[in-house]
Write the structure tokens for this entry.
Amino acid sequence: MNPEVKERIDRLAREHRLTAAELKALIDSRTEEAAEYLFEKAREVRRQYYGTDVYLRGLIEFTNYCKNNCIYCGIRRSNARAQRYRLTQKQILDCCETGYGLGFRTFVLQGGEDPYYSDDAIVQIVSEIKHRFPDCAITLSIGEKSTESYRRFREAGADRYLLRHETADEAHYSKLHPPEMSFQNRMRCLRDLKALGFQTGCGFMVGSPFQTTDCLVEDLLFVKELQPEMVGIGPFIPHSDTPFAEKAAGTLELALFLLGVIRLLLPSVLLPATTALGTIHPQGRELGILAGANVVMPNLSPRDVRKKYMLYDNKICTGDEAAECRMCLQRRIESIGYHIAVSRGDFIRGRKAV
Ligand code: SAH
């Protein structure tokens, strides 16, 4: 391997930072050999905090109505071909019940931005889940809200919040979103969430249209600066009923490389091997774990709605029951020498567990 590349990876593993120019050079000059070396370092760092534990999050996709019109997303407002659905509070609680039995101790409520669910409704759902499953963590992933709304969700007991920043480059942001959506507001939301004490997740798509290496460098610098507890990344995958239908998908190779880099930038971060990664390659999620990820998010949504939460084409696991997804992932994780932990899987702050 080029000694300069090796030195850069060693320093990233040791100091958990690189300059913008170094990150750019690392990405642009990556080779298979460099990636293997990076993943080895990433696994080593991850092991120091989390051993071979992989944390489970049960994903409940409770609505695909959305008032937003993100250009890349299959459930965008303008997609008249999306069959819309909403889950009732009872259906959501039933998903949690099933999930609890399967060993889930985190429930992620994700949806489009659906005004049908008022803040009061979300507060009620969160309170009820907390009441029934006091040993579980709740993650919300319901988009941009006011500071006050976030405060109410937090007080109701929500522990975590996922809001990918999508891209840290403002000009790039405006190519992925309609003019009524603002980069500044997305950033405001993320800072509010951190300040309110949520374990906060940001993240971005890899290979989204118009993304350059400079955009990725900004993403990495932003991730380092925000110090989120979680980072969700996965390849962009086109959806046939969006204006990006003909755009190329992101690659497995670059997504894995960035997982490795993020593990070294933020050693104890919670890093999912995402469904999108599993969609572009049959072993995508296993490879994600081997590149430094430590979280998987199997689907807990009722089977009859799964095909409707189509953010991108060919999304996997849309025909399976919750139990099947759980067991399939367990097999996959164990096949690579890791194991699924039955615990909330909270962020470890500054302390090495092992
Ligand atoms: N409304 C919520 C949840 C969005 S869906 C929110 O705004 O946070 C969760 C994530 O799926 C998005 O943040 C986006 O990064 C990802 N996503 C959407 N469309 C995608 C596509 N075509 N390819 C890959 N990922 C996509």
Residues 72-73, 110, 112-113, 141-143, 163-164, 166, 205, 234, 236-237, 239, 276, 311-312 surround S-adenosyl-L-homocysteine (CB under 6 Å). The chain has 14 helices and nine strands.
